[in-house]
Amino acid sequence: MKKDFIVDNKLDLSSYKDALDLIEKSRYILIITHVNPDADTISSALAISNFLAENKIKHKVFNISDNLPQNLDFIERYEKITNVLPKFFDLVISVDCGSKNRFGFEVDENIPLINFDHHKSNDNFGTVNIVNYQKSSTAEVVYDFFKYNGLYITKNTATSLYVGIYDDSLAFTINRCDEETFEKVNFLVKCGANPSWIANRLVRRDSLAKYRAIPRVLDSLELYQEGTVASIVARPEWLKDSGAHPRDTEVVLDMVLSISIVKIAFFLRITDDKVRVSIRSKGTIDVSAVAKKFDGGGHVNAAGCSIGTLDIDEAKQIVLKEILETTKE
Ligand SMILES: [Mn+2]
Q: Which one of 144, 247, 251, 319 has the fewest beta carbons within 10 angstroms of its own beta carbon?
């Protein structure tokens, strides 16, 4: 039977209980994080993983790639994340996956699935869906699962959840970050999460290569529509020359969006033999609608999609046209 978590503040608390029931009944759990993993998907998975390990429940955290954000390596059980599927699992928990496509592989339809997420585009693909797109992060949604089931949050779980909330809320700066977010963070600090220790590990261990690549990406800045729309690109050769990871240049997108006149910024680079596009906006401009046109998805102010070409400049023109089209009044 399908059970859906209802948004619009009508909390269907039974979903949290149903999720815990499924966990307690299972023999081996597979926790799935999304392709191109970010801090939210990894932290949400590791928060659950630490809880399961503390309760001696057998499980694995899975990511399709072996290319994880290294700056998360301080979170307990990070090194146990695997890209090898276990032979047997009788429950799937997906975290921060707006659709099943985000798993990067097909899961047997007969295996029950708990869907923890906060993407507006989530179509409730789980057996139990704990989806709340009013939350800053999936880590917040997972926090609610702990809270409503009265589960004990250890220091390791608290640290993990803090990282997801901090990173996905862009350090508490997006508009889905509300008083509940700060209540949660307050409680997580009480549970042992240490904000300065976390910040020093999460954001103050950059490679020099990153800062060799950033100026080149920043220099690619182009403005359209009287400067309200901005584009940047990361060409593969720049990353190769500097030795930077594609992820290292993502910060430039936030820098560009911080320019006063810019309302929409988008970023193109090559990942997995496709042009990957990230789009950000300010205020009520919905860029998830743009991403959707290219079978992508995301949130109102942050979305992404892939374009089936290897030509970054061609992809830029295609996306720019769609942005101007979709967002015109
Ligand atoms: Mn997220």
A: 251
Tokens of 25: 């009944």
Q: How far is the CA of 133 from the centre of ligand 1 (A)?
A: 10
CA of 226 to the centre of ligand 1 (A): 31
CATH 3.90.1640.10 domain extents, the chain: 3-202
Q: Using CB atoms within 10 A of its CB, is residue 173 exposed (0-12), middle (13-18) or buried (19+)?
A: exposed
Q: Which fold has domain 3-202?
A: inorganic pyrophosphatase (n-terminal core) (3.90.1640)
Q: Which residues contact 286 (CB under 8 A, 6 or more apart)?
A: 300, 327
Query: pLDDT tens per residue, the chain (329 residues)?
Result: 455 544 444 457 899 999 999 999 999 999 999 999 999 999 999 999 999 999 999 999 999 998 999 999 999 999 999 999 999 999 999 999 999 999 999 999 999 999 999 998 899 999 999 999 999 999 999 999 999 999 999 999 999 999 999 999 999 998 899 999 999 999 999 999 999 999 999 999 999 999 999 999 999 999 999 999 999 999 999 999 999 998 999 999 999 999 999 999 999 999 878 999 999 999 999 999 999 999 999 999 999 999 988 899 999 999 999 999 988 76
Dist. CA 241 → ligand 1 center (Å): 31
Please state the separation of Cα 84 from the chain's center in Å: 21
